[in-house]
Amino acid sequence: MTVGALQRLSFATGALAVVASALGSAQPLRLDQLLNRIEDRVTQFHKLAQNVVCIERSVKTHDAIAAAGRYGVSILSSGQADISSRFASRRDDKFDGVELIEGALDVPLIAGALTAIECRLYDRLPGGDHTIFIGEVMNIHTTEGDPLLYFRSGYREMRS
What CA–CA distance (Å, rounded) separates 85 from 46? Predict the structure, then answer.
């Protein structure tokens, strides 16, 4: 497969915000993909729900997840494109005007998100200039609504 073919490969993803809190400072990041998996591992007779986030080692969120050992993933709703864009930017005040709620694991979650997932760090693996963080899903909060979709460098709406 050529580089050009890979660049043309397109699929819509949900827009996500990953936030970790360590040393008294919350660190946000927008991701365009979240890899979820449910493993049928027998770990003390229960199924272990996990999610995977790949975070570049040079961003603050990486160090916050590593230090805190837990993080929150907020799957944004269709009205939250401004939050997604803000978290993808390099600005320092990413939380300015963003309403947060504190999860049971003391991780910040985005208010109004379609789904909020609280994870305890389960494992980490090297991935080039990223670290692959595997989180054990501890809590999930959901609401009704439409997801914020990201496709070919822009936000899209889902039509029924």
Answer: 38
Run of H or E residues at 102: strand 100-102
Phi, psi (5° rounding) for residue 104?
Answer: -60, -25
Which amino acid is located at 50 in the chain? Q
CA–CA dist 100, 84 (Å, integer)? 14
Cα four-point dihedral sign 91, 95, 98, 103: positive
Predicted structure pTM score: 0.78
pLDDT at 3: 54
Domains and CATH numbers, the chain: 13-147 (2.30.110.10)
Q: Is 66 left (phi over 0), alpha (psi -120 to 50) or beta?
A: alpha
d(CA 151, CA 159): 14
What SS3 class is residue 106? coil
Residues of the chain with pLDDT under 70: 1-12, 16, 21-48, 160
